[in-house]
Amino acid sequence: MGRLLLVLFLGNVAILEQVLAQFGGGGFADSDDCNFCEDGWTGVIAYGKCYKITTEKMTWWNALLECKSLGGELATILSNNENDYISSVLLAPSEENFGFWFGANDIDNAFNFVWPSESPVSFTDWAPNQPDNHGGIEHCLMRWKTYDWKWNDYQCQKQLPSVCQKRIRSDRNDRERIIRCHPKYSRLSGLLSRG
Ligand SMILES: [Ca+2]
After folding, report:
1. How far is the CA of 127 from the centre of ligand 1 (A)?
2. How far is the CA of 15 from the centre of ligand 1 (A)?
């Protein structure tokens, strides 16, 4: 039931726009039970994800492996809201990095970008004149500080920091946990109770 409720909860976009609450940061009740993400990961329940910046610079291939070694995957970006959240909250504080790796690539078929799961990339936010496969050797997605963190296809062997993701931890008590941990969202209880 809890999982069903969470699915219903995650499915109501209009309400979810109001609950872009960060987990793992300030404003979260000081209880282990309220940690939807592991230490060092920042979560957004609306996207069902926890994110982690991997500051060590590495190739896209190694970033893919690094995220897997952390129990996650190189991050996907599935909507404009998620795109904005990542740039404004996760990337904006970066002063020294001009780009971050994400999971999309067109290694198999130029200009046909897919996520690591092989699912096609639907939402995009390319920088002007991108993707351009410059020199015929740009096949991995980076978000580019130069262009307000818009997207650029880039050489996979370049060394960049990256963003990993995991699913948020969920269980049958999600509804109660969400309301308890974020009392200001208690108005959601009516919606959540429909399940
Ligand atoms: Ca490019």
Report:
1. 9
2. 36
